[in-house]
Automatic annotation (TrEMBL):
Belongs to the sulfatase family. One of its GO terms (molecular function) is arylsulfatase activity. InterPro entries: Alkaline_phosphatase_core_sf, Sulfatase, Sulfatase_N. It comes from freshwater metagenome. SUPFAM superfamilies: Alkaline phosphatase-like. PANTHER family: ARYLSULFATASE (PTHR42693:SF33), ARYLSULFATASE FAMILY MEMBER (PTHR42693). This is Unannotated protein.
Amino acid sequence: MLAGISDIAEQGPDRMQEVRANIGIVPSLASEYSVVMESPLYRFECDTSDCASVGAPAEGNFASRMLGFAADTAAIAGRTALARPFSDAFPSLDGKWRDFWSGGDEFGDNAEGNSVGKAIAGLRVAEETAPTAPIFAFWHTIRTHAPWNVDREGKEIYPSRLPIVDDAHMVGSNKAGTYSTPELQSIERRLYANSAIDFDRQLGQLVAELKAIGRYDNTIIVVTADHGAGITVEADRRIGDTLEQRWTEVAHVPLMVKDPNQTEPATVVAPRSTGQIARTVLNAAGATAPANLAVSPDLSKDLPKGPVFATVGGGIMTPWVYQGAPEPDPWRQQDLTPVNSDYPFAIGIDDSLLGTSVPGGWVPVETDSIDAIQGESTQQLVVITRVPGTCDPAITTGLVSSGGVVTGSVLWQSANSNAPDRGWAIVPKAESYQFWCTSG
């Protein structure tokens, strides 16, 4: 079960508690196709030498030293033609290393949850061209990326991430990068959970294809998250304040690895690096790993079991940061099914209000702006800016209605955030929307 809290625990329980107090964990969503080795290994994507050289060898940090190899391994992400030593390990096709990049832009196939079709089509073309040759494929899914998300069946499309406010990175976050209310944390977790489930569905299609063409047993599969984040005890910033943290913006955090002929799941406890993915691929291809990878063991080796605590460069690799909320148990499944499927994003209000007239005690919100973000879903993302002083700033949830009927909740930023009068709502699409706050 992927965690990624910190190996800072070795500094003592008080220090560990300080770190854990401000972060949360998304429990793993196991399903039919996710029975593979889970690992906090690290993989980098970098297009420029400047990016690759952020961590200088002189810093003495192992992860930073691995960045020296990032210029070569950048091609693992499918951005460029693969460089040596990979080009030496596999047969070439028309003078090029045999790879293909499958994906789509955020507004097209991936938004519809169908990008796996491109990966499968690429595999079939490669198989027809040279049935016995090794294949490398990079599948860019963008499952949880803005501006779209999907439901658990991959059928319904709706806006993914709520808008960024000023210089805040995360949804509903303040300038320090931390979530300002539990409700905003909850809505983001649900969006990500749905997307993870849909990705697993697509991964199952890819696994079925590999089995159908007889390549599954001899295939390495590495599934990575989108980004690492430079998360410190004080804040979550995508680009850290120090060079040691900056590289995490271009880190792909591997979540799962399937080794050739692996049939049983295993949990990797030790920290992993990009170079270890490279060495694993080279070993499987029967190639000799270069000196750069001498310190990077094969991912299939050293597989102790137990909780995962890993950190690189002082950043805690986890997508969630909490402010003033206890950390959930990372080893326990969490039920993210909406209470009311007709109003799946009604958060922080009494569910009995949904579908009824706005009750007494609620007053209309005077707004400066109401922006309904365009989308094809039956659910509408609405961004609201209220007139300052309209509502009690200490109350961070309100009602949304259409035609006099309550259809959901509006989530306001907290009073100490950088945009305390900004709010978001995801409600059933309607011609108009009214917003309400309590009178006291």
